[in-house]
Amino acid sequence: MILTINCGSSSLKYQLYSADLAEVIASGIIAKIGEAGGYADHKVDDGKTRIVRDIADHQAAFTLMMENLLSPDIGVITEPAQIIAIGHRAVHGGSTFVESVIVDDQVMEGLRACSTFAPLHNPCNIAGIEEAMRLFPGTPNVVVFDTAFHQTVPQHAHVYALPYELCTDHGIRRYGFHGTSCRYVSQAAADILGRPIEALSMVICHLGNGVTIDAVKGGQSVDTSIGFGTFCGMPMGTRAGDFDPAIIFHLVKTLGMSLDEVEAICYKKSGLLGLSGLSNDMREVCEAAAAGNKRCQLAVDVFVYQLRKQIGAYAAAMNGLDALVFTAGIGENSAEIRKLVCSGLGVLGIAIDEDLNQIARNGHPDISAADARVATLVVPTDEERMIATDTLQLTMQRA
Description:
It is a single chain. This protein is α/β, with parallel strands linked by helices. The chain has two domains: 144 residues, ATPase, nucleotide binding domain (Nucleotidyltransferase, domain 5, 2-Layer Sandwich), CATH 3.30.420.40; 183 residues, ATPase, nucleotide binding domain (Nucleotidyltransferase, domain 5). Helices cover 39% and strands 19% of the residues. It has 15 helices and 13 strands. It is globular, with a radius of gyration of 21 Å.
């Protein structure tokens, strides 16, 4: 069996596949690690078990995961040795890691070096790998990087107009994220359209608490909205998105804020939460906007406007567009956001059928209007399957 791990700062997501990846045997999430009100949801087939307990740290979370997998009541394995390989998500591989790799000491050293690029994410990913190595000694671990898919972005699109030595000597460039999701969704979209991915120009909108917009031409990433860090590009749940860097100088020099305070604003207090003053959850923001909350309506308007601009820019960058694809939590579930975004994109040949838009999650991925020149799709992402696929391929090659 193949186990996939997605280790965050306060959560652990796992999925267990059959050795041929044909079946998801079990999955789960352990949430609120290190916080009050911790819990674990463990799913097998159509049944879900919730366990409520405080989870002190990641080691305790992994222990609970193993208890669930080995449980005589809800478990699916009888011994850890049944798991033949483990795949991990890592957010940032810098320029060091351009593809998925089997973990060894050198890889771990490289991962730690990349933590300066993603201080909120990589340390958690590393903790997950270390715990897996502790619990499964001798079992191969594979790490799959969100940044790897975007290594094909050409230099003119990923370089910043800073002193060139900063870019070459210190790895300062546009890296892009959610690449594992984008890789899966772009191929799935091509399959739905029944066209070779090499012939398609697509904009992939990964809209969740984190947001990435990707230009994918011929199956390769050619531009992406998130850059060096993980808060630029689109406004997100708590992250600011693009803004004038002069604001940072103003906050520090004029308002007397520390750099730590500014960093907290950019990553944790901005986006939907900062604009709405209510929530980082688009569902709650949309509901409040519909009830007349003006700040929530502003948050929705800003999000939709910035997304339209990004789609239009990428259509121009690729000299045309064949498909617009929505994925992730907001992209897959919010018919309202899809409607608002697409209603302003008729100039690109984008138009959706409102009835199809409402039932997109029920096996109707193509929500295009009959006369639309550009296909609009809703494609559920499956990062775990991509991680499992890479894990299986690399471990088989090593064997």
